[in-house]
Amino acid sequence: MKLLMVSLAGVALAGVEAQTARPAPQARQTDVSLASVPKLQWKQRAPGVWMAVIGKPEVGPMAFAGSPRGAALEKLGSPAFPAALAEARGSVHGVYASVRLPLAAEEKLYGLGMRDDGRVDLRSRSYELKVTPSTHAPVPFYISSGGYGVMINTARVLRIQMGIGNRKDAPWLPPEIDRNTNKKWSSRYPSDAVEANITGTGMEVFLFAGKTPLEVVQRYNLYSGGGCLPPRWGLGFWHRMHTLTPAGKVLEEVDEFAKRDLPLDVIGLEPGWQSASYPSTYDWDPTRFPDPAGFVQAMSARGISLNLWINPFISTKSSIYPQLLPYTGSHMYWLGAVPDYTLAPAREIFMAHERKTQLALGISGFKLDEVDEITPEHALFPSGLSGDQMRQIHGMVMQKMQMEAFRGMNRRTYGLVRGSNAGAGAYPFALYSDGYTHRGFVQMIATASLAGVLWCPEVRNGASDEDWLRRFETALFSPVMQLDGWSSGVKPWSRPAVTDAVRSLMKLRYQLLPYLYTAFAEYERSGVPPFRHMVLEPGYAAESKVVAGAVNSETNPYAESRLIEVADQYMFGPSILVAPLFAGESSRKVVLPAGKWFDFYTGKFAGDGETIPVSAPLDRVPLFVKDGGIVPMMAAVERLRSLPGEVPLEVRHYGTKEASYALYDDDGETFDYEKGVFSVQVLRAVRAGGGLKGEAGAASGPWKSRYSAITWKFMAN
Amino acid sequence: MKLLMVSLAGVALAGVEAQTARPAPQARQTDVSLASVPKLQWKQRAPGVWMAVIGKPEVGPMAFAGSPRGAALEKLGSPAFPAALAEARGSVHGVYASVRLPLAAEEKLYGLGMRDDGRVDLRSRSYELKVTPSTHAPVPFYISSGGYGVMINTARVLRIQMGIGNRKDAPWLPPEIDRNTNKKWSSRYPSDAVEANITGTGMEVFLFAGKTPLEVVQRYNLYSGGGCLPPRWGLGFWHRMHTLTPAGKVLEEVDEFAKRDLPLDVIGLEPGWQSASYPSTYDWDPTRFPDPAGFVQAMSARGISLNLWINPFISTKSSIYPQLLPYTGSHMYWLGAVPDYTLAPAREIFMAHERKTQLALGISGFKLDEVDEITPEHALFPSGLSGDQMRQIHGMVMQKMQMEAFRGMNRRTYGLVRGSNAGAGAYPFALYSDGYTHRGFVQMIATASLAGVLWCPEVRNGASDEDWLRRFETALFSPVMQLDGWSSGVKPWSRPAVTDAVRSLMKLRYQLLPYLYTAFAEYERSGVPPFRHMVLEPGYAAESKVVAGAVNSETNPYAESRLIEVADQYMFGPSILVAPLFAGESSRKVVLPAGKWFDFYTGKFAGDGETIPVSAPLDRVPLFVKDGGIVPMMAAVERLRSLPGEVPLEVRHYGTKEASYALYDDDGETFDYEKGVFSVQVLRAVRAGGGLKGEAGAASGPWKSRYSAITWKFMAN
Questions:
Q1: Parallel/antiparallel/unpaired status of strands A266-269 and A305-310
Q2: What is the ipTM of this complex?
Q3: Of B1, B11, B223, the CB nearest to A44
Q4: What is the pTM for the complete model shown?
């Protein structure tokens, strides 16, 4: 019907018959067949690494990764192209670029970034990999039990279906089940492919071959330029101050650690070190920190490294705001402008300020907060990136910039970052999150190893002494052992009933330094993560359990079942299995991989390829060492930064196997190790008479190992 | 570094230096200023309705809406263009199309589809409007308290920021607050605009003016071709059978209603009526329904209308599968192919089958389930639509097709649908959802009126007799009063302790039919929703309450506050306010809009523009009638379908005001009312002596009103 139109000043008029200029489609116009989707053309990029391009790829996180580790990749070998992936396909249609990667029936799929949902095998699940304050590092990289891994290099949100969702013309389809009459009906029919999409003009797909999931992860890490080797002090104890603590009170608190015989290496200052925040000024607050240089020097004199909180949003009150403004995006966040640090001039402005006012003073690192939150998707940055792209790679951009700043001074850093993405292995930053379930802690530590990142819990408070202490124990076995009092002001001695336990746990962390630092060196040299998901451990086979759902017409009308997987244990270094206990539990089950395993504390045989019940007193984490495990330990010290030139070692051997272990040492502070300035000393347990004896080879390399006097301890005896 | 490459059969090789073909951007290339975003060019489409186009619009839900109601729109008036919107801007950049719509400081924003999150004013919130099994109808339409509404016509997921998120060069910015020292810091700084984006090539933006939010909603509904007028039987009681009930048992259950003196109008058959499901065959099951024609006839003889469950996914076992296959999309859902019913040939195949095997037999309507779930975003349909687009509009496409089928037979239908979108007002379908909180029920009924749709609860079970009965009461005051036993087999008499209460509630629904049916007629004629959110009621002003958050270093480290709004009451027809009670509560608060309000049951004065405490026995819903409210009621009957030609009325008048009411009647079954075959009878309460007296005018129109004998009841007496 024709409507009567009235004239209106300043607004154009038109007669109308239908509402929309764009009526519904009328005819078939699109070929929807699988055959119409082109096969990917794979090109080799490195031994065991291939890439295919779909459409016109846009910037992805790999543009901000480290350089591929050529020699290490060659050393890792040159596996064959995973034949099944020759059938992979992909195309661009409208605003979507998509990819289809075939799966065999029995393949299991792991990874897709850090997760705390208890999920291990991701098959038959769908995910949206979007960096947010609750996902942090939803890395688009997965590992197949079929001998390969896939990484999709895109700075767009990736939606991915892990073997669920069927094409009507798929090469394989499961049988259709009548739900009316067959109880086996499932809302999760299996499919024969991973399918994924982005809204964008294209993407790069990387394929990593490997005999085992661990080899796939190593190859992915090495190709990304990782792993990283933190400075030694970074592996000591970290304590974050309440946000408004002034300089004098920080010094007092550091001295309090010494008085209480508690080791400490890093103090973290929260937003209050800045003259205003949020957004950040990156300038010292003149009231709380009237003499930054003097303050940092006083901390340094005490052997303490300082870590400063920042977020990427710059205040109008910052001294560098006028310089950075032309390089900021269209939209603000919390009223802070958002600099585009993908651009060299922006990085130079920021780093010049950071060098002069922080690094030159001796600041050791940063906590890069809130790089997982950002302006709307349609926001524009001067480089041409949009808000969604910047959000996905913001953590990468910030880590790369910090790494540049510290590397320029030949000083290693070890920091914290709240968001990351693919290709981050080279960056010495541990992720953290506001998520606070203890089981989540364990899952994040473990799944980070499937994503080329590190994760650490921020222990704040606990529901009880027990809960707090148990969380503390998990922090001990993580990349950063940390207590975070930014909001509550909590300290290691805040709960007197368990202060002694806290002290002995902190000291255990320091005793294990030679083992932990060597594990990081192995990460740097061969890509083996120091903390590992169990699926990366040879011989591991945990059974998952399907719990049938009861019909409930309100909460579960479809009687859907739940899958329960083992997600509460992980590996620490080459030979230790960590099985944390949780508040309210005096015992738990542990799945031991094939082979003999021994109790860390007593050396007693614990089991062999089986699930065992374990219990532990409040101040002990159940730990199991594999047969032939060698664990070098030193005496606890007050600071790692001032470790003496000669450190006696107790080298423990577990079980009955002959074994060897390559103990690593270097200056712990610089990048000189990249030029060969390190030492490796091979420790061997060899058969002698009816038992074993220990042998220490000479330390090789130009660095003089500080581990001089070695005492062997055969724990099986 | 150059890597050694090994030759590999069938896979191309290349030397590599960096990981990615696409390095990080190096230079500024994009103008990020607000000035670079063009202003929208508004064109008038109808009185009080304007549209602007951004980029190249794609298909949106309006392509599936009814035709604009020209005469009714003209009658509603021709308000001026809302001047502030002349500053609206929008553009397309890369894969994003975005829009910016200015806001004044005090504007409140309502709508964005159905919601059960307790939110009323959406200002300072962000939403992603994606049709899913938990959102159902996230309609991209919002209403401003500033005298206009905006609808964005897109079949893409819309991300929208309702006055939150600041452009760095916005005309207005709030002052920056230092969070270190100022407790007023907020993570939700206000902004001066709504901003929204999609990934797509463009979109249409519609602007609806209106003096009040109700006028805006009316204009939006009328422009969409609505509201709808259901058949009269649709307003009676609905009962859904357990899914596997065979024909004979259905008949028995219907007879059981009569035996127990319980009214009933509609029986719903769940998936089990089909020969296989899920996916759907759309064919009768020969075991459970060996004689569909005979069965439907037997039901019809009892005055019962039949509603059949379907979902849009077609089984290979369906008799029409081979015909529809060429019109299906690339991907299946639950192993059902997904026909592209935007294409006329696909619709014709489906409707021919439906007409022949269902409509011709006397089936009265359908429950269109799971139109809110669909294949992956990158799926392709023969029309060229992608999976994300189809998901957003699937409910619209299905409703339009059903409407076409029934209209073709001049039979009104009233059905259920689980997903919808903008422009649905013409379609006589009530949405429903699996969400099952009772407070959620109330919020969904109310918010649906801000989105041009209807929503009804599916009462299944309850935690207790009380809970179940209270839910039943809310169903009474909803577009469809229904009990859903598909999974549990629950019946109105399943809880003997409250069966009498259930009976009296069911009868109240039937007594109120003249009032309810007239309210729907008003919806059809002027776009006023029969069940309305309180923000559409003149004189309504509820205070929201900000509850300060306590610092908790684990659960609320930012001490964020919560906003509590009144979201537990709504309007029913022109003059009744419904304030449901919830299990465990013997009393509640009710916010009465300005003006005098009276208790529905007693006629007593309840309050005037104030918040009052109310209580009610278990079998009563607190109801309040505004001063001058006229409520025509009839005696309860067993069936509405067989309503006699003469129905005596009791016409209640509340309060002391003179008032008039236009009572509507028609055949209740066909579309003849569109040709004028209806009657309107004006009922007046006029001052007479010290009191009021009732007058009934002659029923106008060619239809002979069945409401003959009218008895007035002045409730204030």
A1: parallel
A2: 0.92
A3: B11
A4: 0.94
